[in-house]
Structures are given as C-alpha cells and as structure tokens.
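Notes continue from the previous slide.

Worked example: a multi-chain complex. Inputs as given:
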Amino acid sequence: MISAHHCRDMDAQDPLRVLRDRFVIPDGVIYLDGNSLGVLPRATADRVARAITEEWGQGLIRSWNSAGWFGLPQRLGDKIAPLVGAQPGDLVATDSTSVNLYKVLSAALRIADQRAPTRRVIVSERSNFPTDLYIAQSLCHERGFQLRLVDDAQVEPALADDVAVLMLTHVNYRTGFMHDMKLLTAAAHRAQALALWDLAHSAGAVPVDLQAADADFAIGCGYKYLNGGPGAPAFAWVHPRHADRFEQPLAGWWGHAAPFEFTPDYRPAPGIARYLCGTQPILSMVALECGLDTVLAAQPLGGMAALRRKSLALTDLFIQLVEQRCAGHGLELVTPRAHEQRGSQVCLTREQGAYAIVQALIARGVIGDYRAPLPAATWAQGHDPAPGGILRFGFTPLYTGFEDVWHAVAHLLEVLEQREWKRPEFNQRHTVT
Amino acid sequence: MISAHHCRDMDAQDPLRVLRDRFVIPDGVIYLDGNSLGVLPRATADRVARAITEEWGQGLIRSWNSAGWFGLPQRLGDKIAPLVGAQPGDLVATDSTSVNLYKVLSAALRIADQRAPTRRVIVSERSNFPTDLYIAQSLCHERGFQLRLVDDAQVEPALADDVAVLMLTHVNYRTGFMHDMKLLTAAAHRAQALALWDLAHSAGAVPVDLQAADADFAIGCGYKYLNGGPGAPAFAWVHPRHADRFEQPLAGWWGHAAPFEFTPDYRPAPGIARYLCGTQPILSMVALECGLDTVLAAQPLGGMAALRRKSLALTDLFIQLVEQRCAGHGLELVTPRAHEQRGSQVCLTREQGAYAIVQALIARGVIGDYRAPLPAATWAQGHDPAPGGILRFGFTPLYTGFEDVWHAVAHLLEVLEQREWKRPEFNQRHTVT
C-alpha cells in the first residue's frame, strides 16, 4: 500500500516542486480543476494592477504604443509557440477558443473547397467538446459541408475520399483520452484531408509538436493549463504553408495589413496576424502573460517533457491510490491506463451518485468537477463510457503535489465510506462549469 | 472674448462636476481622447484586484457561480440598455465590436435573404470606420451581397429597391458627424431594408433610443465613452422582433439554450443570449462594469439628457474659443455646427501640419489624436472634408471641465504661434490609435 509518507517523499524529490511557489493555493483546498480554470499565479495581481493604474490610468491612450498593448497578441503568441511546437510568429493570442475555431475551420474549408470541391465532409469525434461541434455545424450549414461524428476509435476508418477536414480535440474534455496527433494527421494527409487540432486540454499539459506532426491548423485555450485567468484569451495557429493563402471571415481591422491607414478595403496582414479581428481585452491579455510565464518557468527545469513526467506520475499515483484504497466502492476508471493515450486528468465513473460525490468532495475542499452523461443520441453508433456521469480530476504538474493526491483520495474514501454523498444538500443540481 | 474666469464659473455651476471625482485624471494632462479610450474610473483598480485575489485566487472555479461570472454578459447588458434606449434582457456585453458586427450583420442578411432574396445590397457610408466595412465586405463575399458606399448626405437616396440592409455608424469616428437615427431607420424601413447601427461613438456620449427609432440591430464599444478600459468587451443588441428568429454563425456554447448539458447539437438560447459565443474575459468584463457604473452615476443628475447638454456646451465652447483665439492660423472646422448633427467630439483640419500639431499638443499634456486623410479612392464620388488630415478632440462630459477646454485652446494657440509643430520630433510618424 502506498503511504502518505511515500507521497511526501515524492514531493521532496520532485525537481518541479519549486514552481508551486509561483501560485496562490487557497488554504484548505486541494485543487484538481486546473483543467477547467488554472490557479492564480502570484505575479498576476501586481501586474494587472500596474496595467490599470500606470498603463491605463497614467499612460491612457499613449500606452497602445508605449506599453506595447498593440503587440500583445503576437508577443503572447510567441510565448505559447514553444509550448506547442510552433515557430515564433506563427501563433497569436486572441479572442475565445470558439471564435478562433470559426476562423481556422473557415479557412480550412476554403482551402479544401479549392483543392477538391467534391470533398464535403468534416470528420470529428462524437464526444468532442460541444462548442467545437456547434461551430462546425454552423460552418457546414453556411458552406454546404457535412459533419461526420464517430467514436474515438473510428476516426481513422472514417477518413474516406469525401473528407475535407479532420477536426479533433487532442485530449478529450470528458474522458482524458489523448489522440496520437502525428499518426492521425498523417492519416488525414494520406486521405488528402486537412488536420485541425483543438489543444484546449493539451497546451501546457502534455507535450505537443504541431510542426513535427505537420498539422494544418490549431487553436487552444488560455485559462486552463496556461493559468491565464477566467475567460483568458485563446490562441490560433496556422501552419506557415497556409498562413498567407486565405482570408478568414472575421476580417477586422486588427488583421489588416495596415490597420492605421484606415483604408476602406480589407487587405489581410501577412501571416498569422490576419487571424486577428477586433481590439483585444488588454487587462485579460496582461493576466494571460503572467500565466504563460509560469509555464515557461519550467523550461530550465526540463520544460514540457519534465512537466509530462510529473503529470504521468501524478495521474498514475491517483489511479493506484483509488484502486488500492477505494476498491469495492463501485468506482470505475474511464481515462486510459496507457500513458500515450492519457492527458493530464483522470476520470472516474460510478453507476450512482457521481454528481453528489463531487459535491461532497468540493465541500471538503477537494475541487474536481462533474460531467453529466451525454444524451443517448450521442452514442448511436457507440457506447457511453460513463453512463453514470463522470467525476473529473485534473492534475496540473506546475502546482499539484503528490501528497495532495494522497489527501484527495483519502477524502474520496471518507465520502464513500460515510455515504456522505447521500446527503440531500449534495444532490441539489445547480449550474456547473 | 471668453475668459478663463468665465470657464471656471461654468465649472462651478456645472451640476455634473461631481462626477469627475469618480475618475483618475493624471496630473498635467488635459485628456481629450475619451472617444478613443475612456479615463480610468477610481473604482476599477480595487474591483479588479478583488476579482483576481478573492474571486479567482480563493474562489477558483466556484466563482463561475458564486461570483456571478457566468451571468456577466447579461448583467452588464442590462446596465448598458438604459443608455441606448433598449429594454433589459435585449442586450449583451461580449466579444469585440468587430466580432459582434459579424454576428448581427450576418443575422440581418439571413432575414433579408428570406424576405426578399433579390435584394443584395448593403448601403453604408464611405467614411465609416474601416472595420465595419471590412466585416461587411467579408460577409458580402460569403453570401453574395454587394456593398454600396456613399457619402453621408447620399444615404437616403441610396436606399433603392435592391437594398437589404442599411449599416451605419451613428457618429462618424473621423468627423464627429451624427446621423439622424430615427429618420434614416424610417427611410430604410420604407425601402423595406433593415437598419443596423454601430454605436461606438454614441453609447454614453449622446442620447440614443434604439426602440423609439425602431432600429433592427445595434452594436457598440465598451472602451470609449463607457470607460471600460483598453479593449473592454463590446455589446450587441437585437430588436426583440428578430431575437428568436435567426441563429448567428458564431454558434458557440455560451449561446446554447442549455450550455451545461453539453449536447452535441446546437440549439440557440432564446433571445439575445444566442449572440454569445465563447467564454468571456472576466477581468476585462469586471472592469467594464466599473466603467458602466460611472455613466449610470449620472442618472440621478439627469442621465444622458444632462450629459448631452454638457457635451454640447463643451464642444460649443471649444469651437468658439478656437475661432476667437486661433483665428488666422488656418484651422477649419470639420464637425458640424448644428447640434443635431454633432457627436461629442470636435474635429479640425489644416492644410499643413495637422499631425505635428497633435504631437506638439500631446507633448504639452493635451491629448487628442490625429486621423490621416483617407485614400483618394474613398472619395471617388464625393470630397474629403479634411484633405490635410484631422485633429480630433473628444469631450467626455463625465470628466471634462470647461476650464480644461480653455487651457487646451491656450496650448493650441501657443503651438501655432510659436510654430512648435515645425520641430522635427513632432513630425516623426509612428503607430497611432
């Protein structure tokens, strides 16, 4: 049996442990929801206060130049680039993930349309994050394409000769299942389709190499593992081979070749800058930069490879402890055991009480989240791996410790043994994120 | 001749003067650029600090519910509504102005397409803010419409029987010319076209009554007269008669009828909520709320009508002082003298030196901005009212005083008399916003 002492030893030997000091972890909280909203970096409050009182308050309009506000999408993009295997200058931080998906999927469909107009299908995963499917549905409706949804194991066989674009989320938000980006991108290219990746649960969580995988388009989220704060701006990347070729439809002035000439005709900026649209929320951008700096602080300690080693050690430990200590309580593992198929989260399911167990844990300060079963229609050709709903636990190696994992499972065991989840207050549903 | 003493008296008698205390005005600065970036409200720094340290830092993911983050687009929308003659529940604060224009213009074109598919023209103004024209061009290209650009005086005659949508900015960003919203909306409706208004330079600056004007769609900006901070989220409004009828293409999960059911099919929320797309930048939203509160603080003092009276008194005073004190220096007024055609800014032009005069003023702490002449092609059927470029001065009645105006013109006179604008350092062009 793994002991608390052993977990403390693991923390003592963890070369990344020093990074935890860069964050504010509330007293009494074991935070396993960094896959939904990353923890507050210590540097953020002062940095945003300076942006407000000095840059805005004193500099006023002059700060667009003097404080570098106007260049923030590119400067932050250059900081995200090394985390996802992109070149500086090929990525911008801007807008929301959904809006960025609209831009890049739209550009992908235009390329596909020109290359092979008979290819009218977008392949994606049935249990992809809903907003990705909604945006794809919208563009299908606009442009005369069809969305073909399959289970995760059926992606490759679905790449028939009618496929224009393969659009996948690298790590599934519900199950933590991770696709093989390189293999599926190659399969898409063999099938003469483009490959578009959503890195919402990957950037800052698992090593990603967009260039090595030869991906075509990617988007990702700033407020999960990148610790940018609630609703932090997202990012968009386009492979340089496509960057100058197509306009995206959200053709706003920030994506113009000469935004301050105020010419009446749109002329897209070269490269990734044309994926910008309107004026960006500077306070949220500034906070995002502080988040990115926490991830970049791991670079001298081994970077994403070291973070990945620790992430796998954390999720392995959680799985082992749940199986050792909570055996016989009806919990089942949803996330794959195979390292190469696992993101930085672990999902469990249980026939009954999954929602209430999560609420009982939150009341104890162990913050994970719950994801409801998907509607039956979602699984028409497959099966729901979690018919009782999902208990979702994210492990951010920058600030999560091994002893945290031990205590989290200890609380889980108490909730189960004491049947705490039967209490009425933990069974009242309210909005969850 | 108007004296400084007289201007001080006007400040002493100004019932809105107390509102100035709600802002941080830097020492030595006379700020006449609130039409580009509003001044920092005193409440903002503490409010955003609380959002960071308490709501994000301590509340973490729980704050989506407990701190009301998820409802911010609607709550802020309800605060903007009374400033533009909208009903609560019909307006949301979200995304950028450009992105919102894409949503509402797209919805407008769909309605037009269903009503009268032979109408394929969007009428707009040649000197409209460029991003509006770029977004319109993009949608024209996507949907098979044409953009017909005319001079401000030619809008009504341009409403022929091929027109689907009239898209105008209420107050022109360069000249300060204000359209008659009610008259032109009625003309559009008589021509069986829809009327879409950009309120970027109107919301918080001049009285707007979208419902009384019977407008169809509107968008606006959060960081100008609403004092929301650099790049603050924008807003979108749709007349209730259209709200439930059409989906907009940026169909993200925040616009879904049940975003937390995570269903694979998009089902638009009822009403204006369907104009939301992805997760919003909460820190920038929180700052926007502080800005809105500064404008709402004028409600007990007479609201937008009182602000408008003061705004006209300020711009009248500026025009009079320039004409009295700077006569013979080659300055010409671009903004209309008629109150009903004037926004809350005054624009001057000069054959030579407009750019350098603005730089010399900024060096003296009098912050306005410069707008370059538009390319010749812009004026193919009209004339550029400011071939030498524009000196633009915005007057925000919440915090601009009458004595400020006096001093601003005194500085302008010194710059002209001392030929300060001839200095090389004021003639070096750099990026301006």
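Summary box: Chain B touches chain A through 94 residues (CB under 8 Å). The longest strand of chain B covers residues 163-169.
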